[in-house]
Amino acid sequence: MTHHVMGVDGSYPLLLVLWLLPLAGAILAWAFGPQLKTAAGWICSALVGISFICAVAMWGPGTQSVSGALGAHQALFSWLPGFDFGLLMDPLSLLWTLIITGVGFLIHLYSIGYMDGDRAFARFFAYMNFFVFAMLTLVLSDNFVGLLVGWGLVGLASYFLIGFWFFKPSAVAAARKAFVINVAGDVGIMFAIFMIVASVHSTAFGDAFAFAGSYNSGWLLAICVCLFIGAAAKSAQIPLHTWLPDAMEGPTPVSALIHAATMVTAGVYLVARCAPLWSQNHDAQMLVGTIGALTAIAGAILGCAQWDIKRILAYSTMSQIGYMIMGVGVGAYEGGVAHFFTHAFFKAQLFLGSGLIIHALNNEQDVRRMGGLMKKMPFAFIAMLTGVIAISGIPFLGAGFFSKDLVIQGALEHGHPYLYAVGIITAGITAYYMCRLLFVTFFGSYRGDVDPSELGIRHPELAGTPAHGADQAEAEHEGSGHGQAHHAPAWIMNVPVAILIVPTVLIGWLMFGGDNSPWAHFFAQQFPHPQLSPAPIGEGVTGLITFGAVLVGIAVAWWRYATASAQSRAVERLRGESIRMPGILTHAYYFDLALDLLFVRTSQLFGTIFGRFFDPQIIDGAVRESAFSAQWLGTLVRSFQTGLLRAYALLLVVGVAAFMIYYAVIAGGVHP
Amino acid sequence: MTINVTNADWNAVAPIIIVAITGLLVLLLDLLSPKNISRYAAILLGAAGMIVAGVVASLAYWSPAYVAFGGAFIQSGFGIVFQLIILIAGIGSLILVRPPVQNERIAGATALMLWGTCGAMLMAGAGNLMVVFLGLELLSLALYCLCGLADRPSSRESALKYLILSSTASGFMLYGMALLFGASGSVAFADLANPALASSALLWVGGGLFLVGIAFKLSLVPFHAWSPDVYEGAPLPVTAFMSVATKAGTLAVFARFMYAALPAGTADRLLLPIWIVAAISMIAGNVGMLAQHDLKRLIAYSGIAQVGYILTALAGGTHLGLRYAIYYLAAYTFMNLGAFAIATTMSGDREEGSHLANYRGYGRRNPVGAALMTFFLLAMAGLPPTAGFLGKILILSSSVGAGYAWLGVVLIIGTAISLYAYAKVVRAMYQRDEHVHAFEGHAPAPLAWASAAICFVVIIVMTFYPYTPSNVLPIVK
């Protein structure tokens, strides 16, 4: 079998450097943390920054195209035939690398301020750098096994970082939940690898894709479904999404980097990377597109029912990734990937902006206890405002508009009018809950000094909001300063946010211009481009319809939270809304309960039943004793518990009889 | 018919003779020493004998195959690889011998284990049916005694059960051999591969009974019922030995029979029942694991399924499949020995390490031991980065290539089920459980720790440098 490699083979030292630098940082910060103290933060940030510069320098090789081979391929080492390892940088992985290192660098900088004074400051940066290394392994690997290794390692890094404040039981529980669900996803990918190897005797992307057309369609569907189980677990798609809101127990920079900008989009990367497989199987596309759309709208609806600022953002992340998955699922790869790209900026921006607020308010995360922060924190307001504009998709003013439009229009172009409609409705809901977040937090007057029960916060300790359980965390985390809105964030936290504002507002223009946009050129050779019949509704009209939905969302939010009368009665209103919130929303559709019943309980039952069926030993001892023992071999063995010896012998003889019937039949056939 | 026995013939069986004589030496020393021979002396002498035998055996690996004793024994790459695996199993289990095997029985235990190893090694090199039976019975007789070594009812029960059921199966096998002899007029494997025999009813019926014996020794469902009970009752090192050496020896016999001794055109139909029971075993073995509370029973069921995986590699009869089967068997050897070694470190007189309940909270009591145990269990489950994962990938690729994709599919399903069972143990180790009282401490087990460490390193090395021996096609003449 010929060996297919993607990318132009060669030696690319920069690629190795940008891949390994964060690993070096992780080892440094881990080994010499106590000596380095705050220097660890600077060193780790600098290494990620250098990685970013290397990634930019790899632009040329990464986008080169020589006789069908796209990008740069660096062989690392050979294993068995078909199991070679190497790094591949083509436009798709280049894009992810730029985001991981670029946005990663800014978030590292921000963390120097945010984690200042934490006892495990160096360890935090060791984990963060380790995460960057793992994520780069994931996106730069040229084969499925390397991808799976990176996939597992990012899960591990995420586990460490969610549970970073391990003295909070809720953080430990959240970390464990995230890990378990993600391991389930890893197993899905493992089975996909089994099946791919069984078909093409290789784990290299090139080989797997070169024969994409020759797979049996049921087999291919099974491969795609297994891959998607991994993607759904990592990218918080229904029904494997329940870990993401809990993951907000981690420090806010972690939420920004791992649970918004990069790791959770690994599923989008996987589907986009395996575009040649998905493009061959319409059922797989349908499945992924539908799950994506469902997640988008379900996440958006849940976003309307949350009070914890980070949980609102978590559900919005889930919803936005739903868009991306829908995009890459239906075959609109450029659109799905574009939404990843813009989302990385504006969601990092929103998280870092909310981090400014949380940090200033001493770890308060409940928006009901905020309010009126516009004057006190104008910079945070601008940061959040630009983020909200971008995520809501207000035309031309934010990056999200352009990419979301590509996804929604893509769904229609690829023949999925229902998903198209869901996309538009979700856009309206998104605008509503994001404006709700903005208005409740920044408009009106400050409510931090109002008694929580008056705001409808019934069981602060049971509400699941880390803010109220975080006293201990705060004591560990911050050594100095108390009181409301007191310590202005250090410049080190503001600078990354200020830098992020630029792409949040502007980067979407890259996608403007249809087939002639820089975006379309960048990916011209990356993805399959089937011939499509023109969509019944043009792109401009779609933009207008979406904008209409967005306007409705904003108007409702304005009417409920921002009008003069709403603001004057804010406390009663929030209380009323908290009390009347339907249980199905506050419990997130009871998914956790359902998963518990479905998997934990039934698997216990299953184990018991089948165990008894296959293993007679487990049957109650009394039955066994009375039925079988003592008669066998008389007094010699009376003291022994001979158990089911007769039953075993019987089974043996039945087996022999079955064998013999078969051979007797054959022997009868062959006899001359 | 006369057989000229030359020096070369004796050289071919030299490794086996070395192991057998070591067993005698241990008994002799025990007799001569004023008290009993000390545990370390017996174990180290036995292990040294097996290491020497391994070195002697591997010296001949690259030399051309040699048919000794007129075809009764064959010295070739194939047999030597299996003999090495069996020797590793012997060494790895022998060094785990501790209480509850009392000191006055240590010499006997060591000698029996060495002679059991001899039996399995004979099976690996057997060139005719008589030697197969000789090796099998030598191994089994040693095991009957070894199973009853511990002074407790369950151990005696284990020995008795094994004796009765195994003798029954041996009876079937012997009857099959007799019929095969009737078909070919010879006990040699070489004479079975005669195309004229394909139309002989005796070959089919005899072959079928022979395969029943094989299936019993491999504990394939429905011939598996003995293994959980016998494993559970036997002392830990004996279970470790049984779980590897018996299977390795029997697989060698089966592979030789299947690759070299079948008349052309009969393999597909003759072996079909084996593939079917292998498929059933992959499912039933893994399902059976779900409800276990005892490590040895768990490993018994796991072994039922693992043999199914190895047979999946053999199905189709390709050279590559055989190499992958040997690779997986080697990986299986090390993960089993490693798991048993960790269990031994936890065990005192009452073999606490074999009760899964005692693993609750082990992760906090002994992080290194728990990490190693996790690693071995994940290797059995076939998760990356372990040799178990690679082995399964290799098996899948060869089974599909050989036209047995359906076995590959069953393997994937079986693996999916098994993940849950292994994960249950791992989860228990890392569970926070305040109610578990750590059981009493016991004597340190440096040899078991060393064994676990070596198994870990070997599995890692096997993962990244997967050497699959190429010089292994079995021959019969």
Tell me about the biggest sheet of chain A? 3 strands, mixed
Number of strands of chain A: 5
From the spread of the alpha carbons, the general shape of chain A counts as globular
The multimeric state of the shown protein is heterodimer
Mean pLDDT of chain B: 89
Low-confidence stretches of chain B: none
How far apart are the first and last residues' alpha carbons of chain A, in Å?
Answer: 44 Å
Mean pLDDT of chain A: 80
Structure annotation, total helices of chain A: 31
Radius of gyration of chain B: 21 Å
What order do the helices and strands of chain B follow? HHHEEHHHHHHHHHHHHHHHH
Q: How is the biggest beta sheet of chain B arranged?
A: 2 strands, antiparallel
Category by helix and strand content of chain A: mainly alpha
Which geometry of chain B do the CA atoms define? globular
Task: Note the main attributes of this structure.
heterodimer, A: 672 residues, mainly alpha, three-stranded mixed β-sheet, two-stranded antiparallel sheet, 5 strands, 3% strand, globular, B: 477 residues, 19 helices, 2 strands
